Amino acid sequence: MELISHQANKNPIxxxxxxxxSPSRYENQKRxxxxxxxxxxxxxxxxxxxxxxxGAHVLEFLRYLDQFGKTKVHHQNCAFFxxxxxxxxxPCPLRQAWGSLDAxxxxxxxxxxxxxxxxxxxxxxxxxxxxxxxxxxxxxxxARGVSYEKKRKRVNRQRTQTLSQTQPPLPLQQQQPxxxxxxxxxxxGAIV
Length: 192
What we know:
- It is a single chain.
- This protein has 192 residues and is an all-alpha fold.
- The chain has a domain at 25-146: DNA polymerase, domain 1 (Orthogonal Bundle).
- It is 43% helix and 2% strand.
- The chain has helices spanning 15-18, 25-43, 55-65, 98-114, 127-144, 157-166, 172-175; strands spanning 71-72, 94-95.
- The protein has a two-stranded antiparallel ribbon.
- The termini are far apart.
- 12% of the residues are buried.
């Protein structure tokens, strides 16, 4: 009698299939930021628990982080206030850049909810934090001579020229709304 092997045709499992995919840079940074904030709460005097944390504590944390900043923010009485590229060094402090703080708050806001915090009680989403970030942005824009205005999307000129060549012009009465009439009154398409 011939012995038949009953070994099933199974694909060998490689170690790459056993290990879950590594987290993205964003996920790693979010985890590090969350751990840093939790460490800050533990070291706070008196120590704070996450449920007792408020927007005021988040502001305290952001001010604490300023000491590790790398962005020169000139005082209003500094000779270089408002200059984007000062010609000489000055004693003005280094601070956290607004963009870094804004991104940090976004990551911590997400991490708070991922770690079981209720969205309606999220201290990172508080009005005080939003106002603080706006003040930091506006002051740093003035102090550094940098504009933080939202960039408008550029329209592809070639595409608009092509469209204008393929579509006939609208009659004059459809081009400009009459006084008191909205632009959308002439629109017959569905709003998506």
